[in-house]
Design a protein that fits this description.
The chain is α+β, with helices and mostly antiparallel strands. It has helices spanning about 20-30, 55-65, 110-120, 130-135, 145-150, 210-245, 275-290, 295-305, 305-315, 325-330; strands at about 1-5, 10-20, 45-50, 85-90, 95-105, 155, 170-180, 180-190, 200, 250, 265. The chain contains 10 helices and 11 strands. The strands form 2 sheets. Strands 1, 2, 3, 4, 5, 6, 7, 8 and 9 form a 9-stranded mixed sheet that branches. Strands 10-11 form a two-stranded antiparallel sheet.
Length: about 350
């Protein structure tokens, strides 16, 4: 997997050791969540153990931070914080764990019926006489209530009023539901440009300072050679265009009596000479008839101006085609009289 910062780089190449798709994660959940409007807002990015001094670690931190739009902490509303992306770096193995969660906020310290009322997920109450029956029916503690009571660190008081079912200025529980995908990544290589350029870091290949200088010098020579070839190619193209412009046949346009323009030129085609036309007619006669024309036939070929009379007179295989009868298509009645037998 590659993460590229366009248009100038750098390029980070990762090796994916393990992964799970969103469908795989949803298949393992008892109540999977179907995302609807959560992807319209930017997620919260949580980076863990990315506090080293290595250059590749700092590049990874900047690359992951630029993957998602920035969030203004002073202006962001709590309803826009619907997802969270967590990245954990293991310093011993050099691998990164990628997780993607959905953030849920529910009221804490109340029963299930009150939660449904707060979240506006009411059931049909046709059989109940009063709202108190609906609330008292769910007075028993549920499993989720026990989880909220046990995990006191997941409860907090929201500073803003939310539309997701919490009670303002009361304790609310924050829950995370995994959306997927899951990935286990390892940084392999960092390149200076976009999928090219100087290798700034490599997990398996280590080079000395002298080797890096020689490699940089060789790349610079290759760049200069490519530049010289490009300039030579451009010069050859310009020379060909100049020669092509000189070889164009131009003829000065005669100036009219009214206008005094004399500098107009236009492309003209030279007309064939009469002798050339006569030779073409004789050659055509040889190909069509199969013998040399005599003096009288040569004179007739020279005097004729079109090809159709020559073909009709000298080619015995030439036949005139009759024009098709188009009266039935033009709507006119047929002029031929039909004879009927009694």
């Amino acid at each position: 997997m590659r993460i590229v910062k366009s248009p100038h780089g750098p390029t980070l190449t990762f090796r994916v050791h393990k992964y799970s798709l969103m469908s795989d994660v949803a298949r393992l959940q008892q109540r999977p969540h179907s995302p609807s409007f959560e992807f319209k807002t930017a997620p919260l990015l949580i980076l863990n153990n990315f506090n080293g001094e290595q250059r590749e670690l700092k590049l990874m931190t900047i690359a992951f931070q630029n993957l998602f739009p920035t969030i203004n902490v002073q202006k962001v509303h709590i309803d826009d914080c619907k997802r969270a992306v967590m990245l954990n770096y293991d310093k011993d193995t050099g691998r990164i764990d990628f997780r993607h969660y959905l953030v849920k906020v529910v009221p804490a310290g109340v029963n299930k019926s009150v939660k449904k009322v707060a979240q506006k997920r009411l059931e049909s109450m046709d059989s109940l006489a009063d709202i108190s029956e609906y609330v008292l029916r769910g007075a028993g503690a549920a499993d989720s209530d026990a989880e909220d009571m046990a995990a006191a660190e997941s409860q907090l008081e929201l500073p803003q009023k939310s539309k997701r079912g919490d009670i303002h200025q009361q304790q609310s529980a924050v829950r995370l539901q995994e959306l997927g995908p899951r990935m286990e990544l390892q940084l392999v290589k960092v390149e200076e440009a976009v999928c090219d350029g100087t290798v700034l870091y490599h997990a398996y290949v280590k080079k000395s300072f002298a080797e890096m200088e020689a490699l940089a010098k060789r790349k610079e020579e290759q760049r200069k050679l490519r530049e010289a070839r490009r300039k030579a190619q451009e010069a050859r193209v310009k020379a060909k265009q100049a020669i092509k412009g000189k070889n164009m046949k131009v003829k000065p346009k005669p100036a009219s009596a009214d206008s005094g323009d004399e500098g107009d030129v236009e492309d003209v085609e030279t007309a064939p000479e009469p002798e050339q036309l006569e030779d073409d007619d004789v050659e055509w006669y040889r190909q069509e008839v199969g013998e040399e024309p005599d003096a009288e036939e040569k004179a007739e070929l020279k005097s004729s101006s079109t090809m159709a009379p020559k073909r009709e007179k000298f080619n015995p295989l030439y036949k005139k085609r009759k024009k098709p009868d188009t009266s039935r298509f033009s709507g006119k009645p047929d002029q031929k009289k039909r004879k009927f037998k009694d």
